[in-house]
């Protein structure tokens, strides 16, 4: 936990406004860490609806199981998150710990325990001492406030080197609605310190179906388009809570024109948070954008982009500031999607390097080499098959990643 | 290329006997490297049959395209391999280079150019100056010998830190047949120094169909069960040449009982070579065997094993000698195959750590920690679904991998 901060760490946490119907508080519960915030509670006003997406891992943890069941009701009154222990692979004791936590929160807030969302992030396979959490709920309840975003963003961190938050506004029926998001994750998965967690709170008035649809489609363009190491967490969770306090008439259908601005704001917020996660990727020194064009479909483009973005050889080359585009050719080749080798066109930093399956005669490596020395690396890969496209974001693979992960738990 | 040798490097290259009908020679052609062997030629007696498997990459190189066509005839008279340039992503010039090389070899050995196999390994996307190869063919032809295995194994190396060879014998109809194999590869793929290449030469008398069937099934149990970094080469090639000089009657069917000993010998030879490749994996300090049991099918077991074996988090934990089995849980969860979390049983170094989806109460980490300090790491993962099983071999992910790959080309 004493690894140097990411070079992308912002000078300060962004100013995040209150969201009507949302109050938060955080504390030091000592779940695993000492001397830092590691527990946060959020209360949502009655009537708040929720949508979300969670890890597809078949070894998902007890909290994910709980939330999968809770989300089916579409209602939310609270969210409680601890860092330091993921409560994964902990059997019945783990399930009991989630249930006790939800029960304690429900008692404190006078709500149904099935409306309480519980998330845990940290080591896998160690029993969670839920007493450290439940003992703090009363204290957390007593100091709930609409502005405690930075503390909440800090309380959910594991190997993150900076807290992550973002805000957007949009108009629905002429009413300004606010979207605030916080996230944690130092990789698509951090070490066994499993996980990406992200929460969006908005006062927009949305039906459950609209909430679920918007967050699912937004996830595909943001968190599902980033990778640090290709390892998928047992706890990945993205939830959006809509309190309905903005006062416009309820949006009941995803097709309504009046929520297009909200959708764009949400997508932008999610991409912002996703970029913050990648930029805090373990050991990251470079932020990499991979644009794939000309694929058979958008899904195929995404698969090819992830093949490039997950390739240890591509990522180490970028760490070495080496414009080694042959490794991109390799990663396209192994993706398992259609690509026309003899039309493959690769550009780095806006400089076209290959065309029609060959290096461009007289291609000048100078500008590309200069681009590789920067923090932000862009590449475009046209695979010459169709019109499918996707953008993937990742970071480089450095000695820092090995340092962090070869001795995390010890 | 000045990286330290693998700790698994053998004290000396094994003594490999001649194989009737096979003669080799190697030289310094200066394709890319100076002052080392980088070109080898093998001549096969007329009547030699060939089978093999090649990379499935859609960006495969010109030599792979050539060999895919050549192998359809089932006949082989020569194999020529250069190191230093993979002749991949080189367009028509690349295809012409292969054709000229095959033509020159065919002229020198008085054979059909379509019976000449051509392999290249090295950087991607640079034009191969085939003159450096064709100029040397006459010299190579003049010094062909039945015993020049070590030179041949050295000539095909790229980032390998030691040459790789192995021998087996078997009996068919009471006749002793010999199988000799050489391989290169410092990873399932080495850097952009693409590739795993392996060649088996035998004097057994086999039909083309039997040769192809044996090598394909052997590949699944050996080279297709190893991984260094999950990156698939544009040039991976495994070929078996059977000269038919042993004198027993031809094996025409894969079902013949009398070739079972040969099959076992071949499988053992391929696993031996595959292990040598993993043990020379870039930066490898540990050799890891992952046994997966209880999967839905053998294919599912292999997929789960590769998910574990390719996980950067599992591999860095092992590099750090950390028995961080939570990362194995994670890798099983993300594999995309069925697994019963609540039956998942993990053992490391023979010590059972989890049962029924939980750590075993009172599990003693001592013996496991001691095991993690060794060179050879074993783990067994029972996913609790069915009877499918597979064994995967890999190496750890260390600072050495970053060193080698972050600055390879420059």
Note down, in words, how this protein is organized.
- 2 copies of one chain form a homodimer.
- By secondary structure, chain A is of the alpha+beta class.
- Chain A folds into 2 domains: 22-279, L-amino peptidase D-ALA esterase/amidase (4-Layer Sandwich); 287-406, Roll (Ubiquitin-like (UB roll)), CATH 3.10.20.340.
- Helix content of chain A is 31%, strand content 25%.
- Chain A has helices spanning 62-71, 91-109, 131-142, 149-155, 208-221, 260-279, 298-310, 312-319, 326-333, 365-372, 399-406; strands at 22-27, 39-44, 49-54, 78-85, 116-123, 164-172, 175-184, 197-202, 226-227, 237-242, 287-295, 345-348, 351-352, 354-355, 358-359, 376-382, 388-395.
- In chain A, the strands form 4 sheets. In chain A, strands 9-17-11-16-12-13 form a 6-stranded mixed β-sheet, sandwiched between helices. A 5-stranded mixed β-sheet of chain A has the order 3-10-8-7-6, sandwiched between helices.
- The longest helix of chain A has 20 residues, at 260-279.
- The radius of gyration of chain A is 22 Å and the shape is globular.
- The termini of chain A are close together.
- Chains A and B meet through helix 8, helix 9, strand 15 and helix 11 of A and helix 8, helix 9, strand 15 and helix 11 of B.
Count the strands of chain A? Answer: 17
Number of helices of chain A: 11
User: What fold name stands as the CATH topology of the largest domain in chain A?
Assistant: L-amino peptidase D-ALA esterase/amidase
Q: Which range does the strand content of chain A fall in?
A: 15-25%
What do we call the CATH homologous superfamily of the largest domain in chain A?
L-amino peptidase D-ALA esterase/amidase
Q: Runs of chain A with pLDDT <50, length 5+?
A: 190-194
Secondary-structure-based class of chain A equals alpha+beta
Distance between the termini of chain A: 12 Å
Task: Please identify, by name, the CATH architecture of the largest domain in chain A.
Answer: 4-Layer Sandwich
- Rg of Cα set of chain A: 22 Å
Helix fraction of chain A?
A: 25-40%
Return the average pLDDT of chain A rounded to an integer. 91
Structurally, the number of domains of chain A stands at 2
Mind describing the biggest β-sheet of chain A? 6 strands, mixed
Q: Can you tell me the CATH class of the largest domain in chain A?
A: Alpha Beta
Largest interface: A-B, 66 and 66 residues
Helix-strand topology string of chain A: EEEHEHEHHEEEHEEHEHHHEEEEHEEH
Across the major sheet of chain A, the strand order is: 9-17-11-16-12-13
